[in-house]
UniProtKB/TrEMBL annotation:
It holds the Pfam family NAD_binding_10. Residues 13-192 form the NAD(P)-binding domain. InterPro entries: NAD(P)-bd_dom, NAD(P)-bd_dom_sf, NmrA-type_oxidoreductase. It comes from the Bacteria. PANTHER family: NMRA-LIKE DOMAIN-CONTAINING PROTEIN, QUINONE OXIDOREDUCTASE 2. The lineage of its organism: Bacteria, Pseudomonadati, Pseudomonadota, Alphaproteobacteria, Acetobacterales. This is KR domain-containing protein.
């Protein structure tokens, strides 16, 4: 639906989980002039049927980016998942930022990472840090959405939960998981209103790995033990289980970040930006489909 007096809003990665949810939130709120972008626009047909403009947005194709950002007032740049190839993700992000600036986009929102400074052990933290820097130095208004771990990430623990043992090197560090739905609601609110700033987007409380696994064990209704190991032991176990070394290192780094206190901040960003409280872990696990996802291998 086109409204000549309203700003045009672009969501990149709209075929992905966060991007699609953000578009859905915009539609639900009655916002017009929504543009959904994906490297494969054919995946967005159902959105086009509902009045959303669909564009090709391929961060590896500069010509597509010039067209994608044309006429856009505010853009949500959803960080890509290209974390296994050194420097690729940053090149993609910078290409998108530069194209947005050249096209005259007035406001860029970007999905980032909490505490992505030099202190972060996460191998892809520099991608976020340098993308934020490029946006901040561009002169364009911006909002950084530094999303904590998604509650949906717990679905990947289904096999470990079924085995009754979860291995971790997070120690007594705390994390503040947020539901992907809440992160999408925040992104939609920022895109619709143009609220500037930098926000740590978190759930309403933090928890240790022991507390998290205890909640998950209650959800799957059988005992699960946390086995505390060293970083090296955790990484080696992942590799022996079939994970590529680079992926294992990235996953271990999340435990290191948690152990060092980089993921435990709790904020009221969800309520402040959307007007509704963040979903708690208990509320998330009370949803039957979420509990079901914890007892089978996940594709989330």
């Amino acid at each position: 639906m086109i409204n000549a007096s309203a700003p045009s809003l672009l969501v990149t990665g709209a075929a992905g989980q966060l991007g699609r949810l953000t578009v859905e939130r915009l539609l639900t709120s009655g916002v017009s002039n929504i543009v959904a972008g994906s490297r494969d626009p054919s995946k967005l047909g159902s959105l086009a049927d509902r009045g959303v403009e669909v564009r090709k947005v391929d961060f590896d194709d500069l010509s597509s980016l010039a067209v994608a950002f044309n006429g856009i007032h505010r853009a949500l740049i959803v960080s890509t998942d290209a974390i296994m190839v050194p420097d690729l993700r940053l090149r993609q992000h910078l290409a998108a930022v530069n194209a947005a600036v050249r096209a005259g986009v007035e406001h860029i929102a970007y999905t980032s990472l909490p505490n992505a400074g030099p202190e972060s052990p996460v191998p892809f933290a520099p991608d976020h840090r340098e993308t934020e820097r490029a946006i901040a130095e561009s002169g364009v208004a911006f909002t950084f959405l530094r999303n904590n771990f998604y509650m949906e990430n717990t679905f990947f623990m289904a096999r470990a939960l079924a085995s009754g043992r979860v291995f971790s090197s997070a120690g007594s560090g705390r994390s503040s998981h947020v539901s992907r739905a809440d992160a999408a609601s925040v992104a939609a609110a920022v895109l619709a209103s143009g609220i500037p700033g930098a926000y740590d987007v978190t759930g309403p409380s933090s928890h240790t790995i022991d507390e998290l696994v205890a909640a998950l064990a209650r959800a799957v209704e059988h005992p699960v033990e946390v086995v505390h190991v060293s970083d090296d032991e955790l990484g080696q176990g992942m590799i022996e289980a079939g994970l590529p070394p680079a992926m294992a290192a990235a996953l271990v780094s999340m435990d290191v970040a948690t152990r060092r206190g980089l993921q435990g901040t709790v904020t009221d960003a969800v309520r402040a930006l959307t007007g509704h409280p963040a979903v708690s872990l208990a509320e998330f696990l009370a949803v039957s489909t979420h509990r079901a996802a914890l007892v089978r291998p996940s594709q989330h």
